[in-house]
Amino acid sequence: MLISVIIPVYKPKDCFWECLDSLCNQKFPKNDFEVILVLNGCKEPYFSSIIDYLNIHVELQVKLFHTNEANVSNARNIGLDNANGEYITFVDSDDYVSPMYLKELYENVTPDTVSISNLYMFNDGGGWGIPYKEETCGSKRAYNRGVNNNVTELSYKVGCCFCSSWGKLINRSIIGDRRYNINLSYGEDSVFMFLVSNKIKKVSFTSYEAIYYYRRHDDSLSGRVSLKERISSHVKMALCYFKIYFRQPLKYNFVFFVTRLLGGI
Questions:
Q1: Model confidence over 72-89: pLDDT tens digits?
Q2: Which of 31, 32, 60, 100 has the fewest Cβ atoms nearer than 10 Å?
Q3: Which CATH topology does 3-264 take?
């Protein structure tokens, strides 16, 4: 198995089926990738609905799990524990990807290089497919940038891309037995990417044809929590960065560590 696509699922809405449809439409061989769905929290009627979908779309190779713990980090960890792919990619259940997504990510990845797709953000409140804004992390030509070896290559674009774990393809050896911090309610993606960054030598960007479509919700977490809660979350995230870096300060890039802290602030 070449690729494992890990999708945490919590009380899925209609857009979840569009997410799965986008994987059915991949230009990458169906036999070469698996989809790992981890339904977290309430089981029914969602579990049965997913089974009904999978019974129709038998071309997808899917592993379906359920956990009562409604925690996205825990769900991703379950996915990692059960992944058979040589490479890992994460997709959120309310997002979707372009047909060339897996193909181009795989063509640009190596064991020590993380390949990154383009990102297209759109506003959920404005209707399906209406763009919110477009952020391209790369250019039309794929190119490499050092992460740990050359401080000057730690560009703003690379830093932005490492704020999330979706939109990229990562070799299993880079992740190893390291997992998401289930105690973080904010910034768990960024902390995880910093945790595994010490084994990433380069990043490679796809062409514009490989796109991760990110749905921006009007009722995002930042709009539903108090200032006190947000400050507490950022402090926890900063402490995680400190613990990771100072356990092995020679293995992590100091400038990248500082940019992570500043990004959190």
A1: 999 999 999 999 999 999
A2: 31
A3: Spore Coat Polysaccharide Biosynthesis Protein SpsA; Chain A (3.90.550)
